[in-house]
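Collaborator request, handled under Task 6.
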Amino acid sequence: MSTENERALEDGIVTDLKDRMTYGSYLDLDRLLGAQHPVSRPEHHDEMLFIIQHQTTELWLKLVLHELGTARDRLAEDDLRSALKHIARVKHIQEVLTQQWSVLATLTPTEYAQFRGDLGNSSGFQSVQYRAVEFALGNKNEKMLGVFRNHPDNLALLTAEWERPTLYDEFLRYVARRGLPVPQEILDRDVRQPYREHPELVSAIREIYENPSEYWDLYEACEELVDVEDNFQFWRFRHLRTVTRTIGMKVGTGGSSGVDFLQRALSLTFFPELYSVRTEIGR
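Structure tokens returned to the collaborator:
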């Protein structure tokens, strides 16, 4: 006999969990779900939203770094197909991260003002994983290392990304090994420097785009990288708009100019030649 609106447990379901690995223990949920510590006093209801929004972002960023690291390894091994699988996963994570801003956007200026002063100088500007993702994609900035000089683990993480070739570096090296004319100065460049556009590279990229049947995998890879940059810019824009609607033109908690500082990030690029080539195609 079944009880109305109640599902009976199947006989095979394990209910005696003593001395077994469980869902909670595998995911370390006691620690994960106990990591939210509002600082406002009295505690403001909406601070929990603010904390969880940023904590989940950091978890996704950790996975993005994991995938970008492996994608670069696969490119260095001439395994483009596997690299593209990891890049595709990054794209899906980016979509989640961008959509997530709509949750934080439910925080009104009045609500945020109730606990913003309790945050001190803590700011997303100080996210080492976000900076590491920027470094991995090409927006390197040695000055950012100084932000983490008092946190050895964070400094080590970001320094490793600063010294490592970017995703684009590894892709262009792979393109060169495929016989396309990538300028030697790009292949020999100091990877600790931010990637800057090289107009002479556009001809090699143009050859890929104008001969897709011959270079289909490279053609696909170029478009995948464009997707990654577009997604990153969408994320930056949604960040900008969410901050604008929440604090207006106030100075950021970390001391930045706030909206103006975020606006200038929209001019940064990762893969400039993949956009410049579009002007040349069909001429």
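The cover message to the collaborator said: "The chain has a mean pLDDT of 95. The chain is about 60% helix and 0% strand. Please let us know whether this matches your experimental observations."
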